[in-house]
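re: ur question from yesterday

yeah so i grabbed the chain u mentioned. its 261 aa long if i counted rite. heres the sequnce exactly as i have it in my notes:
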Amino acid sequence: MEAAQATDGPRPTAQSADRPRTGEAAHVLDNPARAALTGPHAHLAERHGRILRYPMDVTPWLALSDEPDADDWADLAALAGPGAEVPLLGFRGRVPDDWEITFRIEGVQFVDDGLSTAPEPEAVRLGPDDVPEILDLVARTRPGPFLSRTIELGTYLGIRRGGALVAMAGERLHPPGWTEISAVCTDPAFRGEGLATRLILAVAHGIRERGETPFLHTGAGNTDAIRLYESLGFRLRRTTAFMAARVPERLPEGRTALPVS
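ran it thru and got these structure tokens back, copy pasting raw so excuse formatting
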């Protein structure tokens, strides 16, 4: 979930979204974390059975198979550990009865459908040395998870005023041919100046320069962000969900928790 905080309002309809029909092949963006972790982000992937995840200090996204079976859920339970809360971002399937759903919010996925991208002269590229300041900005604006190594996922751009970081946007999931725009946020004291718009278009410009297509996620009730994205030239592709579930305290027979690395 990115950009402005979620607000109450009508959900976007899925009538215009591209949704797989029976017999159609799955689109790479239907399971973007798995496509990224088996593609351009494979060097970051941690694997147990068919479960893939990013390192815990990079991003909470993990990837189940398109249709997880009992063994997949058992592997995920062993990977996370008994009683652990597991993020199931973008998962639309059925969670086993003995897993407690602890959080759920409806989400939407948008794709580039005519963005007028452009570099941003005021933007600077952010790096590892900027992470403490990024984490401070994220804590104040709450655009979504940003951790100590999230910066490794792609290009992050920021705008500074008086030397202080006041706005940023960057890249997260990277399925083949696509890159997700993420961590869009602006210090409250500098909102209304169009900084988020300028950074979104600058990040999208870099993605396009690589021959890839920008996409992004947000909450379905995040009406301010949705209006902005649509005005820039993003199109609703599909609905999704952001949720978390708690691993049963007792793991399936024959399974033990994996040692924490």
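noticed a couple things. Residues 1-23 have pLDDT under 50 and may be disordered. also The two ends are 28 Å apart (CA to CA).
anyway ttyl
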